[in-house]
User: Which sequence fits this backbone?
């Protein structure tokens, strides 16, 4: 798991190169990236909270089928989460 981009952003913030409010978007479930599971989401959120406090807005999304796991834990989605194309959405 990695949150290196958050530390890079904190570096830029400390030097005045970016200004709050910051918009941070985390993408989960990409091959070679952070997983699309609750622990990964919490790690990223806690790291952002520690580094930026209330100076940021956070958006999290998951790629393709990975979004099903996150959506079922968060209860919020833009589109229905289907396990495979042609299947009924998971409720």
Assistant:
């Amino acid at each position: 798991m990695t949150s290196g981009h958050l530390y890079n952003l904190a570096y830029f913030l400390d030097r005045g190169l970016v200004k709050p409010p910051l918009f941070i978007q985390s993408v989960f479930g990409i091959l070679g990236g952070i997983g699309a599971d609750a622990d990964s989401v919490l790690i990223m959120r806690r790291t952002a909270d520690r580094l930026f406090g209330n100076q940021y807005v956070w958006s999290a999304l998951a790629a393709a089928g990975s979004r099903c796991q996150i959506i079922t834990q968060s209860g919020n989605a833009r589109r229905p989460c289907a396990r495979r194309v042609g299947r009924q959405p998971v409720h």
Notes: Strands lie at 22-28, 56-62, 81-82, 89-90.
